[in-house]
Design goal:
Length: 480
C-alpha cells in the first residue's frame, strides 16, 4: 500500500488529500499539522473550513484510508510520498519584505523531513512557492540525507475555493514537474499513477521543475490580470455610459479571449492572487527585469484603485460624508461559498468607510465576528498600498457590529454595500429592506448581483460597478 503524508491541513492540503483518498482507496493518506485545534476540527463533525461537498468526501474516507493527525514526525517517517502544503505568506520584515514569500514554514518542514526519514522519499511541493524553491529544498534534504534518496517534485494546486471539490474531481489539468534524471522521471511516474486513478491521462502534464513552479505563479497572475483589466474597463464604462457586462459579453465571444473570469467587481481577494503577483514582482526585480516587474505590479495597483474608487463612490453619493451614518455591509468573505477572508476586498472597503467615520453593520453567512474583528484590526504590511496603511483605531472597532442576517444589518441604515456575491443576497426582500432604511436609501453593488432596475422602482438609488450611472450619482461625482 502506498503511503501518502501531507504536511499542512489547510485550504489546499485538506480538500486535496480528501479527494486523493476517495479516488485511491488503496492509498493510505494521513494529513498532519502542528495545529492541534485544526486537526481536532478535521476529526470532528465541524470541519475547520467551509467548502461545498467537502463534508461528504471526508465522511466517506475518514478512518478508512484518510487520517488527520498531529503526530507529524511519525507519519512523515512512514510515508512514501510527502506533500508539503504549509503556508507561505508574504514576508513582512527583512530582505524582500512586502514582496518575497516567507519560506520559514517550508524550511522547517524540510529540515524535519530530513531529520526523521529512514527510507527514500518523494517530496512534493504543493504550496505555491517561488521558482527555484525546489532547488533549495533539495539542498536541505541532500545535505542532511544520511544516505536516503530524495526526489523533489512540484505539483502546484489550481483549485479555487468554493469549488474546490469539483475542481479536484475534474481538474483542467494536473501539473507535475520533476528533475530530468531517471530518478526524477520515476518519481513523476509514481505521482502520475496516483492522479491517473481519476484524471484522464491527457490532462496530466509533466514538465521540468522550474516550469511547474513558474506556471503556478503565471496562472494566478494571468487570472488576476483579467480581473484588473475588466475592472479598469468598468471605470471607463461609468465615465462613458457603456455597460461593462455588455462589453465583457462582447469580448468574451472572441474565442481567443473566452467568456470566463470577466466579471467586474469591487476587487479580487483571496490568499493567492496578490501574494503570488508580489512574489513574481520580487523574482523579476531580483533577476534584473524591472520593466516586467512594473507590468505585473500594475495589476495590484488597479485592484487597490478599484477598492478606493468604490469607497469614494459611497462617500460622494451620500453628500460627501458617511460620518455617523449606519452602513450595512453584506458579505465579508473574498468570494461566495467560502468563509475565507484572506485579502478580501471587504477589509479595505470597511476600513475606508470607517476612515470616514461610518458605523458598519456587517453580515456574512460564513464569517464570524472574531474573524472580522481580527481582519479589521490587523496592521497590514504596507508595500505600495496607501489604503493598507492604517490599522483600525480602538474607536473604529466600536463602530463595527456583526449581525446574523441581512435585514438586521440594513435596519435604519442609510446605505447597503454588497461586497460578496452570496446567492442569498439575490433573493432578499428589498421592499422590506427599503421600508426599514433611512431615506434616501442607497445600494452599492460591488458584485453586480442585484437587479438595479427593480431596486430603482422600489425607490433605491443604486450604484452598480461599470454600469450607466443613476442620475443621482452623476450629480455627485466621485474622484478616485
Ligand atoms: C485562485 C485561482 O482561481 C486558483 O486556480 C488558484 O489555485 C488559487 O487562486 P481562489 O482565490 O480560491 O482561486 O478564487 P477565484 O475564484 O480565483 O477568485 C479570486 C478573486 O477574484 C475573488 O475575490 C473573486 O471574487 C474575484 N473574481 C473572480 C472577480 O472579481 N471577477 C471574476 O470574474 C472572477
Ligand atoms: C488584430 C485582431 O486579431 C483582430 O481581431 C482585429 O480586427 C485587428 O487587429 P491583426 O492585427 O490583423 O488582427 O493580427 P493578429 O493575428 O491579432 O496579430 C497581431 C500581432 O500580434 C501580430 O504582430 C502577431 O504576430 C502578434 N501575436 C499574435 C503574437 O506576438 N503572439 C500571439 O500569440 C498572437
Ligand atoms: P493553504 O491555503 O496554502 O492551504 P493554510 O494556511 O490554510 O494554507 O494551511 C497551512 C497549514 O500548514 C496550517 O494549518 C499550518 O498550521 C500548517 N503548518 C505550517 N507549518 C507546519 C509544519 N512545519 N508542520 C506541520 N504543519 C505546518
Amino acid at each position: 500500500m502506498v503511503k501518502i503524508c501531507c504536511i499542512g491541513a489547510g485550504y489546499v492540503g485538506g480538500p486535496t488529500m480528501a479527494v486523493i483518498a476517495l479516488k485511491c482507496p488503496k492509498v493510505e493518506v494521513v494529513v498532519v499539522d502542528i495545529s492541534v485545534p485544526r486537526i481536532t476540527a478535521w476529526n470532528s463533525d465541524t470541519l475547520p473550513i467551509y467548502e461545498p461537498g467537502l463534508d461528504d468526501v471526508v465522511k466517506q474516507c475518514r478512518g478508512k484510508n484518510l487520517f488527520f493527525s498531529t503526530d507529524v514526525e511519525k507519519h512523515v517517517a512512514e510515508a512514501d510520498i510527502i506533500f508539503v502544503s504549509v503556508n507561505t505568506p508574504t514576508k513582512t520584515r527583512g530582505l524582500g519584505a512586502g514582496k518575497a514569500a516567507d519560506l520559514t514554514y517550508w524550511e522547517s518542514a524540510a529540515r524535519m523531513i530530513a531529520d526523521v526519514s529512514k527510507s527514500d522519499k518523494i517530496v512534493v511541493e504543493k504550496s505555491t512557492v517561488p521558482v527555484k524553491t525546489a532547488e533549495a529544498i533539495e539542498k536541505i534534504l541532500t545535505h542532511n540525507s544520511k544516505g536516503i534518496n530524495y526526489q523533489i517534485l512540484s505539483n502546484p494546486e489550481f483549485l479555487a475555493e468554493g469549488t474546490a471539490i469539483q475542481d479536484l474531481f475534474h481538474p483542467d489539468r494536473v501539473l507535475i514537474g520533476g528533475r530530468e534524471t531517471p530518478g526524477g522521471q520515476k518519481a513523476i511516474q509514481a505521482l502520475k499513477s496516483v492522479y491517473a486513478e481519476w484524471v484522464p491521462e491527457d490532462r496530466i502534464i509533466t514538465t521540468n521543475l522550474w516550469s511547474a513552479e513558474l506556471s503556478k505563479l503565471a496562472a494566478n497572475a494571468f487570472l488576476a490580470q483579467r480581473i484588473s483589466s475588466v475592472n479598469a474597463m468598468s471605470a471607463l464604462c461609468e465615465a462613458t455610459g457603456a455597460d461593462v457586462a455588455e462589453v465583457s459579453h462582447a469580448i468574451g465571444k472572441d474565442s481567443r479571449i473566452g467568456p470566463k473570469f470577466l466579471n467586474a467587481s469591487v476587487g479580487f481577494g483571496g490568499s493567492c492572487f496578490q501574494k503570488d503577483i508580489l512574489n513574481l514582482v520580487y523574482i523579476c526585480e531580483c533577476n534584473g527585469l524591472p520593466e516586467v516587474a512594473t507590468y505585473w505590479k500594475q495589476v495590484i495597483k488597479v485592484n487597490d484603485y478599484q477598492k478606493t474608487r468604490f469607497v469614494n463612490r459611497v462617500v460622494a453619493s451620500m453628500f460627501n460624508t458617511v460620518s455617523g451614518k449606519k452602513i450595512a455591509v453584506l458579505g465579508f468573505a473574498f468570494k461566495k461559498d467560502t468563509g475565507d477572508t484572506r485579502e478580501t476586498p471587504a477589509i479595505d472597503v470597511c476600513k475606508g468607510l470607517l476612515g470616514d467615520n461610518a458605523r458598519l453593520s456587517i453580515y456574512d453567512p460564513q464569517v464570524n465576528e472574531d474573524q472580522m474583528q481580527r481582519d479589521l484590526t490587523m496592521n497590514k504590511f504596507d508595500w505600495d498600498h496607501p489604503i493598507h496603511l492604517q490599522p483600525m483605531s480602538p474607536t473604529s472597532v466600536k463602530q463595527v457590529s456583526m449581525v446574523w442576517d441581512a435585514y438586521t444589518a440594513a435596519k435604519d441604515a442609510h446605505g447597503i454595500c454588497i461586497l460578496t456575491e452570496w446567492d442569498e443576497f439575490k433573493t432578499l426582500d428589498f421592499q422590506k429592506i427599503f421600508d426599514n432604511m433611512q431615506k434616501p436609501a442607497f445600494v452599492f453593488d460591488g458584485r453586480n448581483i442585484v437587479d438595479a432596475d427593480k431596486l430603482r422602482e422600489i425607490g433605491f438609488i443604486v450604484y452598480s460597478i461599470g454600469k450607466p450611472l443613476d442620475p443621482w450619482l452623476k450629480d455627485m461625482p466621485a474622484v478616485a
